[in-house]
Amino acid sequence: MDAHSKAGPTSNIRMRNGCLSVLSAPALSLLKPHLTEVCLHEGTILWEPNDRTADVYFPLSGLISILLGMAEGECVAVGSVGREAVAGAIFESGRSQLLTRGSVQIGGTFLRFPGSELSRAAQKNEELKNLIAFCQDWVLVQAQQLAACNAVHSADKRFCRWLAECYQRMEGETVHVTQESIAAVLGIRRTTVTLIAQKLQENGFIQYRRGNISIPDLPKLQGAACECCRTLDQRYWPSTRLAHKAKIEAMMS
Amino acid sequence: MPLFYFILKDGNSALPDRDGVELPNARAALSHANVIARELMRNRERRTRAWRLQVCDGDLQPVLELLFAQLDDSLSYLPHESRQAIQDVCRSIGSLSDSMNDVRTTIETIRATIARANELLLDSPLHRS
User: What is this structure's pTM?
Assistant: First the structure.
């Protein structure tokens, strides 16, 4: 499954994942012994429905999509996780049936951590308990917003929303993604994605070359996206909420 | 399997799907075009009624053209004559946009030709002397 893996995280992991960057040293010390850095390609399946034992992934780059499969094999994204959070089947806990599948949407570097170990560590540490709760919230709020978005917004606006969100979470990197992959996430045909991308390129919203999408003007792209782009902003990111919580606790103590 | 290309005409430009799609026959291409047009139109029907999706064969020869207004389910509550009238208006808007785009292209070609002619004139021995 892994294109490349090595034991033990690199020294600057804190800087590369938003949640790890705000955890205190004691909380991080509970995670460090079990973190493994892996490079994963687009399309790698990280967990299958009902896989309660699956690992969790802290993206250092790239993006993970949370997909819901239909009987005829189609999969539609009900959420995605980048450097602002952690992805894994355990963030659906509390339900009797785990419906989703996790898949690498944009290839990159990730830190893998055993899911069961995270639950155990969270019993000993309040910050990690918050991390799990905020990531569960993040998955839920995205699913709620996307359900409404898919019902009432047009394909071009949803495409712009998805792209702007990716760009923000990847902190301004060029988005490397195939049109087939975008089509699968948005639940539309590849031809539709190509025609929308052509129009956006013609109007100067994006530059698309050989699977690389660069965004010259993010506010302009956000202006062309649906309102969900502004609703699902950084306030909901687990990394932001953890940082906010840490700040409040520091002020109280 | 034969290759089909899908070109979106949105009144301002003709946007091609350069990769094309392999489909068994023209009937399957029409069915694919129907799905694409509906996906492009969904939740913005009023603004896209005059758009058209042209299907071309592997040699880029037009096979058929779909007018979005023909597929617009949001008009289904209207009597047949009213729907037909809206489709006719949309078709006319499409033809008008095509003509305006043709004029625009011609003007650009003329401008380029004049610019090239000016360059040649400036370079000519007659002008230099």
Answer: 0.86
